[in-house]
Predict the structure.
Amino acid sequence: MTAAPGQGEAGPVRGHGGDGGEAASGFPTRKAVVTGASRGLGSTLAGFLAGVGYDLVVTARGRAALEAAAATLPGEGDVRTLAGDVTDPAHRKALAEAVGDSLDLLVLNASALGPSPLPRLAEVDVDALRQVLEVNVVAQLALTQALLPALTRGRGLVVAVTSDAAVGGYPGWGPYGASKAALELLARTFAGEADGVAVAVVDPGDMRTAMQQRAFPDQDIGDRPAPDVTLPFFAWLLEQPRAAVDGGRFLAQADAWTLPAEPAP
Amino acid sequence: MIAGAAPGWRTPTVFHGAGPEATRPPEARGLPRDGVRLLVSGPSGHSHHIFRDLPRILRPGDLLVVNDSATLPASLPARPLDRRQAGERFLLNLSTRFGERLWLAEPRRSAAEPGPLALRPGDRATAGERTPVTVTFVAPHPGTPRLWFVTPRAPLEPVMAADGVPIRYGYLPEPQPLDAYQTLFARAPGSAEMPSAGRPFTRSLVAGLGAAGVDVATLTLHTGVSSLELPADAGGGSGSLYAEPFTVPAATAAAVRRARRAGGRVIAVGTTVVRALETAAASGEVRSATGFSRRFVRPGAVRGAVDGLITGFHEPSSSHLALLLGLAGQRMVRGAYAEAVRRGYLWHEFGDSHLLLWERRARIGP
């Protein structure tokens, strides 16, 4: 399946494939939006979701990288690429239009690290902090709002990708960590407020990604696992009843993923 | 039971030897289920028994915790739908159900030949013959690329019912019926391979245990495939093995806490039970829990949730031995395996049994 260059902002659409002679799926189709889907965790997750049979709307800022990543997606579902910046209201509106009536899954994966090398708070440029908050907090809420009608119709799940920096207080990680802490609180609040839409917070752990390299520009990050290390976790998360994971915070690389326990007798 | 040990742990070479393999169930060898041999290992040494002696070996107040997972006919005949291997039949051994639409599976050439098969994400196959269902290979499991996430076009349970057989490896020359793979406690279908430590229990033995003041509590852990050919470092970058669904019910967690407070020993029937209880002991004592666990119990990572273990005899390089060493210590386990090899105890799921009882120790590691 090769994605051809698209017209205008909306990228190519790959139609439902199949050989004609084969039985159609006995299951209803599902649709997902993945942000930051051109590389790293976003690209890996998009590949997994495509393989599982989701119809996808994938977005990232760089059109060429996004379309190259989309061209490698397995499976037979629709794939729509839409290059743009999630901080741009027009792009969010275009994403909502591309999604249509109903959405099963929104992966809020795109995020900004801020300056590299990571600056100490004493020296951080407050405009850089503002920009990190704009991308990682404001735009994530605004995108969720834009897709909320479709999520509500699909009784969907929002996955907010976070980081241990949100709770760590690690030197240098102030702006990014603060933005992820704010994102987590918005996600948990949303979980309590939104009827019929579940929200889960996921810390994927350290991975061998471009963002990790930007955070540690002088280090060899080859010892970090590739982003597919998180796939068993996402396989688990996506198949859980929505209500069971709503409001939860999960560590994708932990040795167990558990649901809230039943009360002791 | 999972094969493979995580990075950072190496099986001591002293274990590179094994007893004879049980190639048939004990019933086919003229023994009742509880007639298999039982090696009992404790701090003061080893003794030799028959499994049905168990009520006389345990003490009043001890608690046995068993796994009530039932074995699935998880091995399906399969045929590729894609060009590169057209027509070449293989086995699709279902390992773990993540959901109706997502399974982890091991495609194999046959019971004796693991493959690997040349697969790419998006490749498709049909599973089953009478009621075939198309499955798509989604992605290999990180660190264990022999295992694949697969998505079926329709539920696989009817395919298993029509065409599935229990998973079997090369050391078993003949297929056995599904009943041979069910324990007395089997209630919840979901295991790719029998939780075999519970196999020797019979109704009369459980009645005898009750009369001796030994209670039995249940939990569920659905085992994945333990394919012996999986790499020794199977597992993701986290050093963990692949995840399996488990539930420790509140009543069982309470029974465990009660038994220990009263001075009784908590004895896991099977390494599956150890893994479930150790996972559920994250807070320090066992609490009800449900989810997926890939916790690797090994030297340096023991939460101290159990005081004893009934298990079988297993491959020298398996995570099973790491678990035994973590729980019972080098001295007891080395001595036991030397004794078992010398006395000809039978290996594998239809073989003999081993009870290990160790001094209660504090939590070690995470």
In short: The two ends of chain A are 54 Å apart (CA to CA). Chain A touches chain B at residues 22-27, 47-48, 51-53, 74-75, 205, 224-226, 228-229, 231-232, 235-236, 238-240, 253-259, 261-265 (CB under 8 Å). Chain A has nine helices and nine strands. Chain A has one domain: 28-251.
